[in-house]
């Protein structure tokens, strides 16, 4: 089974860009408890972002996901999410995602910078790093976790604002179930 080890958050929502905020995940269960606005949702949003590359809903294309430069008293905020998890084979994997939010004259400018995946070569035991340009990390991580992207997005890390999808109209419901059960794989099968 895939397990989460720990995550570092810098410069996301209320998490300051100046501190190293590290959350350690315990086995078999970690409960996240805190007052309203403490950052519980942000932790789940960061887990989802690190694993799938998806931004939370209503973030104005990422702008409100990054710590507001005005709150930091800066013109630019650099943000980082670093997640360490273990694959179902117990191999440690590190995902690093970096972002930047700049206050321009008239508007804020959001940029996703680097995406890096550190893996271990099972044969040599040497650390290997894959950069975003070399591999589609968003497709690679669900494979390493042994779970599909649709299950990560709609079930495991479903955002509280989107968690009502099981009560949606039949068309939306069918689309979600098709994604979750990878129906396309079966409808596209051709018999030789
Ligand atoms: N872009 C931003 N810059 C700085 N702070 C932000 C930004 N976006 C949100 N925040 C702050 O981050 C916090 C959001 O925290 P979050 O929603 O994760 O808390 P929560 O513990 O899940 O709260 P609740 O229990 O109400 O759901 C709020 O205090 C909000 O003011």
From TrEMBL:
InterPro entries in alphabetical order: P-loop_NTPase, Rad50/SbcC_AAA
Cofactor or coenzyme needed: Zn(2+)
Nucleus keyword on record: yes
Coiled coil: none
Cell compartments where the protein resides: Chromosome; Nucleus
Protein name per the record: Rad50/SbcC-type AAA domain-containing protein
Native source organism of the sequence: Apatococcus fuscideae
SUPFAM superfamilies per the UniProt record, alphabetical: P-loop containing nucleoside triphosphate hydrolases (SSF52540)
One GO BP annotation of this record: chromosome organization involved in meiotic cell cycle
GO MF assignments: ATP hydrolysis activity; double-stranded telomeric DNA binding; G-quadruplex DNA binding; metal ion binding; single-stranded telomeric DNA binding
């Amino acid at each position: 089974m895939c397990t989460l080890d720990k995550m570092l958050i810098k410069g996301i929502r209320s998490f300051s860009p100046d501190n190293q905020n590290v959350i350690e995940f315990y086995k078999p269960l970690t409960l996240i408890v805190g007052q309203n606005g403490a950052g519980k949702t942000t932790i789940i949003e960061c887990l989802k972002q690190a694993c799938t590359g998806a931004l939370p809903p209503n973030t104005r294309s990422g702008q409100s996901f990054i710590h507001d430069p005005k709150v930091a008293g800066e013109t630019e905020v650099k943000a980082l999410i670093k997640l360490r998890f273990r694959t179902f084979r117990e191999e440690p994997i590190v995902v690093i995602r970096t972002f930047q939010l700049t206050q321009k004259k008239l508007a804020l400018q959001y940029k996703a910078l680097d995406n890096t995946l550190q893996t271990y070569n099972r044969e040599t035991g040497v650390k290997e790093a894959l950069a975003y340009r070399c591999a589609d990390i968003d497709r690679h991580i669900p494979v390493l976790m042994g779970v599909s992207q649709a299950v990560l997005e709609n079930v495991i890390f479903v955002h509280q604002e989107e968690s009502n999808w099981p009560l949606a109209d039949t068309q939306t419901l069918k689309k979600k179930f098709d994604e979750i059960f990878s129906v396309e794989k079966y409808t596209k099968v051709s018999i030789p």
